[in-house]
Amino acid sequence: MAFFIALFIVALGMIQLVSTFHTYALSLAELNGLKRQESSLIAQKRELENDIARWNDKSYVTAQARDRLGFVFPGEVAVRVAHPEAVTGNTSDSTNSSSSASQHSTLPWYSELSYAFKKADEPVARSTGSSKTSTEQNGTKSGAGSGGSSADSNGSKH
């Protein structure tokens, strides 16, 4: 009888021990996941701080204004080459692959700004199909009624 009681106590202890180790293993796995997440967030924070530091530098802002918006200083003349392959001598095969990837950047900045204003003025489309068609009909009516472009009917200026 004492043997069975001792065996029962040992079995109960083993069950407690196994459940404790299982809880420890789960907690350790969660801790490792949180450490990985923390390290990625620290790296992301570092990148964002570097971006902030760059945008606080006047020379970086000037360079971005020149590259992205095409700004020039007073007295300078902006020269844009329509066909750079004529100047560089490269064949059109190498420029076609790069130009197809950067087709969006070929628009002038004011056209992109006008497009952004048009998109911002559009009503938010709902998930149902009927509201989307009514939005499209409203946009068609306002554009056709003004006799001009839809940008003029929205009140934006060129």
Give structural notes.
This protein is 73% helix and 0% strand. It is mainly α. Among the domains are: 2-56; 72-123, no CATH class. The protein is elongated.
How would you classify the helix and strand content by structural class? mainly alpha
Poorly predicted parts: 97-104, 129-158
Gyration radius over CA: 32 Å
How widely separated are the two ends? 98 Å
Largest sheet: none
What would you call the shape? elongated
Helix-strand pattern = HHHHHHH
Helical amount: over 70%
Fraction of residues in β-strands = under 5%
| Arithmetic mean of pLDDT | 76
What's the count of strands? 0
Helix segment count?
Answer: 7
What's the helix and strand layout?
Elements: H1 2-55, H2 58-69, H3 84-88, H4 92-101, H5 109-121, H6 129-146, H7 150-153
How would you briefly describe this protein structure?
This protein is mainly alpha-helical.
Keywords summarizing the entry:
158 residues, mainly alpha, 7 helices, 73% helix, 0% strand, elongated, disordered C terminus
